[in-house]
Amino acid sequence: MDILSSKTNGVLTLEFNRPERKNAITSAMYQSMADAINEAEQDAAVRAILIVGKPEIFTAGNDLEDFMKSARPADGSGIEERSVYKFMMALSGSTKPVVAAVAGAAVGIGTTLLMHCDLVYAADNAKFSMPFVQLGLCPEFASSILLTQIAGYPRAAEKLMLGEAFLAQEALEMGLVSKIVPAAELRAFAEGQAAKLVALPASSIRATKQLMKAARKGPVTEAIAAENKFFGAMLAAPEAKEAFTAFFEKRKPDFTKFS
């Protein structure tokens, strides 16, 4: 199973379990997580959600081979049917508190999804990156506004435009993560935080989360729609084709011929 799903003591744990491919996420994996979160919404016994990877890798982001097989229309239509959209909407819209524990690399959507979680903890070996521009693409799932709100425009611009990786300490300074924990202690610490949430009044947690997210609900929805429109068109453009071709050919892309 590429996604391990378990319910224990009121916590739904979703674990990326594809280490041989650096936990790269396929459509099937997105669908599995979407289904699990949606089921948890209807299950009163689930009072918190925990998302984890492996000690050496959180996720390398989209599995590019799988991603390219499921090409989307250039106008961005039909996104509602894509499993990645279903997962991100389930995650963003969950009324349950979501805890994420990041060790190793969190690439692309691996960093984006953290902005839709409530408590994010990083191991001291964590590394984050959003290389959308490097792939000839643009930010996704409201990361263009959420990272700006979290870190401020100058820092968000640096991370989104250059797409360079940054470490746990900088993520903490930016406000992307809540705390840095030694890698060997991360899983247990995150499970402990989830257990604290389980012990608190579920109605109070729900109300607090709803109130905190209310002001950004509309802007996030609008940003996702705008990003998707750009993303679909850019995915069919020559810059992205050059980026993906270069990736599979294991060379640096040449964007100088595009204006």
Automatic annotation (TrEMBL):
Keywords: Isomerase. One of its GO terms (molecular function) is isomerase activity. InterPro entries: ECH/Chromodomain_protein, Enoyl-CoA_hydra/iso. PANTHER family: ENOYL-COA DELTA ISOMERASE 2, PTHR43684. This is Enoyl-CoA hydratase. It comes from Duganella violaceipulchra.
